[in-house]
Amino acid sequence: MKRRTAFLGLAIATSIALVGCTAADTGSGSTEGVGGEPVTGGTLQVLQNTDFSHLDPAQGFDGGVNNFYRLIYRTLTTQGVGEGAEGTEIVPDLATDTGTPNEDATVWTFTLKDDIFFEDGTPITSADVKFGVERSLDPSISIGSPYAKIVLYMPEDYQGFYISGPLDTIETPDEKTIVFHLNQPYADFAAVVGQAPFTPFPADDESVTTTSIDQQPIASGPYRVTEYQRGSTLVLERNEHWDASTDDVRKAYPDSFEWTFGLDGATIDERMIAGQGDDQNAIAGSVQAASIARIQTPEIQERTIQGLQGCTTYMPLNTTKPGMDDPLVRQAINLAVNKQAVKDGTGGSQLADIATTMMPPTVAGFTEFDLYPSEDFEGDPEAAKELLAEAGYPDGFEFTLDIRNNPKMQAQAEAIQQSLAQAGITVNFNLIDSATFYEVIGTTSQQHDAAITGWCPDWASGATFLPPLFEGTQIFEKGNSNVAQLNDPAVNERIAEIRAMTDVEEANAAWGALDEQIMELAPAVPLLFEKAVMVVGSNVAGAYAHAGFSGGIDYVSVGLASAE
Questions:
Q1: What is the end-to-end Cα distance of the chain in Å, rounded?
Q2: pLDDT tens digits for range 253-278
Q3: Taking every annotated instance into account, which residue ranges of this chain make up the domain Solute-binding protein family (predicted)?
Q4: Integer Cα distance of 559 and 253 in angstroms
Q5: Dist CA 382 CA 385 (whole Å)
C-alpha cells in the first residue's frame, strides 16, 4: 500500500502506518486510548520490525516515519492531536497561525513564533525554514513528500540550494516572516507547509549537506537523536532548548524513547501479549491476523486500541490494456468481486471494513455511496456476466493480477480469483517480491492488467488522494501512482477546477462528489479500509490511534502511567 501505504508515497513497516480525518468505532478494544493521562518521565520502548526509511525529512515519506519526525522536527504547521478529525486538523506549529493567503491563494505568508530554537540553542529564523525547503528540492534527496515540488513557483531546472542556489520565490523580508509564491492557487497550502520537507535547518551551518541530516538530524522538536544503529536501535533524549510554551501539539511526556528494530512480527506480538519487564513500557504496531484470537481476553482488551488506518486497499484496473480499456468490463469486475471474502481473507472485521468508495471515511469530504452493490457484499456474478456479454465477452474474460508475495495479499487475491471465476472471469497471478512490488507496478511498462495495492492521503483531503491515483498528468514511466492509468478528460478538468478553489470546505465537498464520478468509470475496485489493532504495555498511558498516521499510536501524546 502507500503512502503507498508509502508514496507508492509509503512502504509501511510492521510498526506504524499512515493518514486520515475521522475515527470510528471499529469493534472490540478501546477507541479512546488507554491508560489515562501520562506522567512526565521514564523511557518509552518501541518494538518495530523495520527501521525508519530515512531520518532526513526530505527523504522519508510514510506514516511511521512522519509520526516519528514530529518528535525531533517541527514545521510551520502540523496535524493536531486527538482521535478522529481532531487529530487531522491542521494547526500552527512554528508559525503563529496557519498562514495568510492572497486573494487567489497563490501567495502565502507565515510569521514565526518567538522562542523557537534548534537543539544547540540557535534561534530558528525564516531563513532556516527557507533553506530547509531549498535543500529538500535537491534531486539527490528529493524522494519524500512531493508537494513542495508540485506547488512552489520555481524555474523548471531548479535543483535545490547546493546546485541552483537560493529560490527567489521564497521570500524572507525579516527573521520572522516567510512568503511563498505558488505556481497555482492552492487552498490547502497550510497543510503543505506541515509536510516534512518544510523542516527548518540552520542556513549558515556549512556542515549541513544533502546527506548529513540522514546520519545526524538537527532537532527543532522536543527530542534529539543521541544513539542510532541502523536496523538495530534508536534512542531519543530531551532537547533542552525546546520550549513547551511555544508548542500546543507535543506533550513530550517520556524523558526518552528507545526503538528496537529487526524484530519478527510474531515475536513482537508474543512480547506485547505477555507484557513482561520493560515490555510493560512498550508500544508496537498492529498485531498480525494470526494473533487476533489471542488478544480477546479482558486483560488484553484493556490495553488494546484500534482505529482505521485512513487508507484504502484497492485493485486498480489498467485502463490501457485490451479489455480493461472498456468501462463495461471494469464495471463487471466491480460487480463480481466478493468483498466479504476479501475481508475474511484479511483477518475479518477486527482488521478491516469493506470499502465501496475510493476515498476513506477518514478524509474530509468523504461521501458514502455504492455504485456496484450486492447482497452482503458477496458479489453479483450474474449481473457481471450480462455486462461482459454487452462488452463482447459472452464467454468470459481473462486478466493478470500483480500481487506481493506475502500471505495477506495472496489471501486477498485468492478471494478475488474465486469470486470472479463465478462470473466467467479468469484471474492469473503475477507474484512480485515485496521489496520491488511498488517499483514494478509503478513502472508502466512492467505492470499487468491489475494489482492489489493501497493508498493513504498525506493529509485528510481528497487533494492528496484522487489526483495521484486518477489524474492523467500523474502518469509517469516510473514512480507512477496512477496505476489504473486513467486519463479521462472530464476527470482531469474537474480535478483542475477543484484544485483552483480557494474555499477548503467547498473543495472537500467537491472531492467527495468527484470520487463518485470517477467510480462510474470503474478504473479500480475499492476493497477494504484496513485497521490497526495494537496492544500496549500495562504501564503505557495516553495511547490512541491517530487517524493522520495510518492509525498508528500518536508518538507526541503517549507516555507512561508511572515513571518509577
A1: 40
A2: 999 999 999 999 899 999 999 999 99
A3: 89-474
A4: 5
A5: 5
Give φ, ψ of 80 to 5 degrees. -75, -170
Q: Tell me the pairing of strands 450-451 and 397-404.
A: parallel
What per-residue string of b and e applies to 121-140 under the rule 16 or more CB within 10 Å gives b? Answer: eeebbbbbbbbbbbbbbbee
Q: What angle do CA 450, 519, 524 make, to 5 degrees?
A: 10
> In 3-state terms, what secondary structure has residue 354?
strand
Distance between CA atoms of residues 440 and 438, nearest Å: 5
The C-alpha cell of 542 is what?
Answer: 495516553
Q: Which numeric CATH code is attached to 312-531?
A: 3.10.105.10
Extents of the domains making up the chain: 312-531
Identify any residues that bridge with 553 across adjacent strands, giving them in sequence order: 545
CA 15 vs CA 62, 112, 205, 257, 550: distances in Å: 11, 33, 34, 15, 11
Q: What are phi and psi of 177, to 5 degrees?
A: -115, 135
Contact 79, 194 (CB under 8 A): yes
Grid coordinates belonging to 537:
504495555
Chain centroid to Cα 358, Å, comes to: 15
Phi, psi angles (nearest 5°) of residue 223: -130, 160
DSSP letter for 73, please.
-
**How far apart are alpha carbons 210 and 42 in whole angstroms?**
34
Whole-structure pTM value: 0.83
Q: What is d(CA 55, CA 47) in angstroms, rounded to the nearest whole number?
A: 18
Cell numbers for 381, please give them.
Answer: 456474478
pLDDT in tens, 493-511: 999 999 888 888 899 999 9
